Amino acid sequence: MSYTRRTKDQLAARVAQDIFDGAVVNLGIGQPTLVANHLPEGREVILQSENGILGMGPAPKAGEEDYDLINAGKQPVTLLPGGSFFHHADSFAMMRGGHLDICVLGAFQVSATGDLANWHTGEKDAIPAVGGAMDLAIGAKQTWVMMDLLTKQGASKLVKQCTYPLTGIGCVKRVYSDLATLECTPEGLKLVDKVDGLEHAELEKLVGLPIAQ
């Protein structure tokens, strides 16, 4: 292996790099919350959380946590000057009303054409947890996925067709992974970038699908 996977923080920084100045962004539970810690200095990004926060800042320093101020994943957060918190229903009105420029979600599977499966694996003992994912995936102007490219068993999470229950159809525009950044288009996957040392043919072999350059 002649390449090194992006760490979770490196991946979060890669996502943050593409968020434009002035964007209103929802960061999903799990890896996406790390993006808040890597937004470039001087770039105004307004972070929204589905439990009812607008204007979140980065994670608090150790010892400065306020557990009355948490995100949708129950993690303590900070509030930037001008930030606010409000009723859950108002938050979902923002999500469903097309007021979010970008949402960044985790996923179990993403199809080459942008179908998203991120709430249930279909396993008998798995606990389904849809949360606000369906509202976010369809309500945001752009849906990005942040995930490891492969499962722990080495199978690609990027697939021709999702086998898990769908969250949304054709909603994912970009997939940011530990090995590559890819666009989902009606014609299939398109490469944006990949880690140094990873050959294009090897990436296609790992994914098991053609990837346009």
From TrEMBL:
This is 3-oxoacid CoA-transferase subunit B. SMART domains: CoA_trans. Transmembrane segments: none annotated. Belongs to the 3-oxoacid CoA-transferase subunit B family. Coiled coil: none annotated. It holds the Pfam family CoA_trans. The keyword Transmembrane helix does not apply. It comes from Variovorax rhizosphaerae. The keyword Transferase applies. NCBIfam families: pcaJ_scoB_fam (TIGR02428). PROSITE patterns: COA_TRANSF_2. Keywords: Transferase.
